[in-house]
Structure formats: C-alpha cells, structure tokens
Amino acid sequence: NAGVTQTPKFQVLKTGQSMTLQCAQDMNHEYMSWYRQDPGMGLRLIHYSVGAGITDQGEVPNGYNVSRSTTEDFPLRLLSAAPSQTSVYFCASSQTPIRGWGSPLHFGNGTRLTVT
Amino acid sequence: KNEVEQSPQNLTAQEGEFITINCSYSVGISALHWLQQHPGGGIVSLFMLSSGKKKHGRLIATINIQEKHSSLHITASHPRDSAVYICAVRLGNFNKFYFGSGTKLNVKP
C-alpha cells in the first residue's frame, strides 16, 4: 500500500517557469490538500479538494492552481514561479472530514522546491 | 495572528525524562491532531482528538475543549523520539486545517 506519493522530491526552477507537483493516493480518500512549509511557520493550506471535480482555496492560494479529475490524483501547478514560492510542499489526504469529526491526515514525503 | 500556538519552540531533554508539549488554539474546532515530522522530513499522524485523552505506547495526548488547550506527553523519552511535533486543528465544519509552527525535540542519550 503506497499511501500518498509525491513527485518530484526536489526541483529547481528559474523565475517565470511553470511546473506541476504530482500527488497521488491509493486509499480512496475523498479529501486531498496541498500545504507549504516555510522555516519558523506552520504548514499553510494552499488548496484542497473534497472529491473529484471539487476544489477550493486555502490560506495562500495565489500563484497556484489545482484540479481534481480523479479521486486518486491532485496535482498542484505553479503558473509562473517566483522566489517567494521557494518552500517545501506537502500533499495530504484523509477520509472526508465532513463525515463525523474526521480521520487522520496521511502525508506525502514532500517536495523541496527552489526558485532562483 | 496564528490560530494555533505551540510551546516550547525548542526542547532538549535527557533520555528517560518526561516531556510535555503544549498547544493552544483560539478558534472553535471539531478535532485536534498531533503530528510527528521526522528529521528526514516525513510527517506522520500520531493522534486525533475531539475530547478527553488518548494513549499510544509512551505517548499520551489530552485536550481540554473549554480551555482550548491540548498537551502531548512522552514518558521515558528516547533519542528516537527526536523530531518536530506539530499540533493541527480542524475548524468546525470546515475542511480546513490550521497548524502550529512545531516543537523541535532533541532527546540526548
């Protein structure tokens, strides 16, 4: 059981380039989410989804796009990379929290992105 | 303003010591999560609480809903417990999580 798989693990981009961070889960979780982790700050929610075809913005959505065409995949797109997007990105999934008080979050191993 | 505050930010302990990490939050929540981030970066879920107390091995997590406070205790700490411990809350009926900035624990042999 692979859980949550994130690719790539490391990426270096130049300012203005675009790229897609991949996230896939094999647990049939409806809820998927993207976070960025910066030094001295907690994980911050970028975008989330409660099912295929449904996405919504989190705290820090600017500069990022998402789509959810299948239950398994939730890619995060950087449209035009900026140095401020240098961070570690995590994808997480769980059974949808709207049923009862939720279930544990399962995290991918993270993607370390540097924008020069 | 951070909805979730953790203390201390850094903690050094000797092997065998009893450790407490605190988490306070300022919003209504439906659940609180304790997470562990390993030195290699991976994050795993330790506990999910909506009331009371949970225990798993040497780890104990408690929550006081009225005081908006939770604690994570580690009994008989061991160097392998060295990690960053993160508190996260899920707001009410919303599908959003807010995270504390983490407590970096170093247990010395």
How is this fold's topology laid out?
The complex is a heterodimer of chains A (116) and B (109).
Chain A: E1 4-7, E2 10-13, E3 19-25, E4 31-37, E5 44-51, E6 54-57, E7 64-66, E8 76-78, E9 87-94, E10 106-107, E11 111-115
Parallel strand pairs in A: 2-11
Antiparallel strand pairs in A: 1-3, 3-8, 4-5, 4-9, 5-6, 7-8, 9-10, 9-11
Chain B: E1 4-7, E2 10-14, E3 19-25, E4 29-37, E5 43-49, E6 52-56, E7 59-64, E8 69-74, E9 83-91, E10 97-99, E11 103-108
Molecular structure report:
The complex is a heterodimer of chains A (116) and B (109). By secondary structure, chain A is an all-beta fold. In chain A, 0% of the residues lie in helices and 47% in strands. In chain A, strands 2, 4, 5, 6, 9, 10 and 11 form a seven-stranded mixed sheet that branches. A four-stranded antiparallel sheet of chain A has the order 1-3-8-7, with no helix packed on it. In chain A, strand 5 and strand 6 form a beta hairpin. Chain A is globular. The model of chain A has no long low-confidence stretch (mean pLDDT 92). Chain B is mainly beta. Chain B has no helices and eleven strands. In chain B, a hairpin with a 4-residue loop joins strand 7 and strand 8. Chain B is globular. Chain B starts with a strand and ends with a strand. In chain B, 35% of the residues are buried. The model of chain B has no long low-confidence stretch (mean pLDDT 91). The interface between A and B is medium-sized, with 28 and 25 residues.
Keywords:
heterodimer; A: 116 residues; mainly beta; seven-stranded mixed β-sheet; four-stranded antiparallel β-sheet; 11 strands; 0% helix; globular; B: 109 residues; six-stranded mixed β-sheet; five-stranded antiparallel β-sheet
